[in-house]
Amino acid sequence: MNSLASLHSFGFPLLAHDVMSVNVAADLQAQLSQLNNTAFYILGEGSNTVFLEDYQGTIIKPAFMGVDLVHTDTHYLLKVGASENWHKLVLWCIQHQIYGFENLALIPGTVGAAPIQNIGAYGVEIKQFIHQVDYYDLSEQTHKSLDSLSCEFAYRDSIFKQRLAGQIVITGVTFIIPKRWEAVMHYGELKELIEPCAIDIFNKVVQVRQDKLPDPSKIGNAGSFFKNPVIAMGQYNKLQQTWPSIPSYFVDSNNVKVPAAWLIDQLGFKGKKIGGIGCHPDQALVLTNDGSGTGEQLLQLARNIRDTVFNEFSIIIENEVRLIGKNGPVAL
Ligand code: FAD
Ligand code: EPU
Known about the structure:
- The chain is built from 6 helices and 20 strands.
- The chain is α+β, with helices and mostly antiparallel strands.
- The chain folds into 3 domains: 2-62, Uridine Diphospho-n-acetylenolpyruvylglucosamine Reductase, domain 2 (2-Layer Sandwich); 67-205, Uridine Diphospho-n-acetylenolpyruvylglucosamine Reductase, domain 3; 215-324, Alpha-Beta Complex (Uridine Diphospho-n-acetylenolpyruvylglucosamine Reductase, domain 1).
- The protein has a 5-stranded antiparallel beta sheet, with no helix packed on it. Strands 1-2-5-3 form a 4-stranded mixed beta sheet, with no helix packed on it. A 4-stranded antiparallel beta sheet has the order 13-19-18-17.
- The site of flavin-adenine dinucleotide has 33 residues, from strand 3, strand 8, strand 12 and strand 13.
């Protein structure tokens, strides 16, 4: 048995039957065939995965490294191994005066996981920069690639989270970054900046994130526990009659996105705890583990929040984090 405590950012001191590292994509099939059809789970840095109990299967930890840069007249093409750390890549780009990723600074996790939920923050989503995703298809036993359009990117979603979930191992991602940089500063605190350069935006994003979000190395968490729900404009207009200050973000002429943090905050969950699991006192969308929490307590608090939001607002909120039980993914 192997400890999962340091392999996921929630930090529950659980065990996995086995952990297997793979650093040559060609070895994947041979290694997986040794598992004799027992369960396995592919894990990056575990910052969007919560193990709720001891995992009976094998954890596969890809270790595909490397950064290759190619210039065209107008763009940088950056081919990166799936297991490189995302924030280190952001820093590497800034050091090489390649700008564009600065709004996505300090997002934990690997490069390979970034396209899976189309990571996003401060007005930017990674889909804007994805040229190609390379992966190994486990059922067809072959290497494949998808271009950006075929990845079916949406808010916190992609083909890798839907049709291809559990069937592929991402080995590398190629990013395409325009040489002509444009600041994105329409979100939240970034609006305060005046004629910023990319490094000013990077510094601001880092500062805001450090102020707002708990550091997983100090207190267990997986970032936003729930996704922000998208609701019909008609429902939003109705809610505004009872809750005039309900915030929203434009999606299209028929739909708006509502911050789940605001909904949860209105219901008084901030600072509430069940055992060692808490709703963060400064960011209602983040659930935390003070070191003594359990998977069962996390499910209890998360279900209580989800059901109370539904009863009060008639809005269904869905978990963003992957919940893993003893045999694999479980629903909230
Ligand atoms: P993991 O949790 O290890 O895996 C996530 C999923 O991807 C799992 O289903 C796993 O099976 C699969 N997977 C991982 N690697 C591979 C691979 N090579 N091949 C196939 N499947 C794979 N997210 C945002 O979008 N924006 C934010 O601002 C943000 N802020 C965060 C802040 C904090 C403090 C924390 C803890 C998390 C935050 N997140 C945020 C969520 C998280 O950082 C991202 O989802 C990140 O991309 C997860 O990377 P990971 O390597 O840790 O993924
Ligand atoms: N708010 C509250 N109460 C709170 C926290 C926030 O009312 O406790 C309100 C704020 O006032 C603001 C709104 O909710 O009006 C949005 O808050 P914030 O800007 O902090 O963003 P968020 O919607 O909570 C999303 C992402 C984050 C990302 C930030 C910045 C999701 C699920 N979460 O959070 O991503 O970093 O925007 O772009 O989309 C993650 O995915 O793990 C994550 C941290």
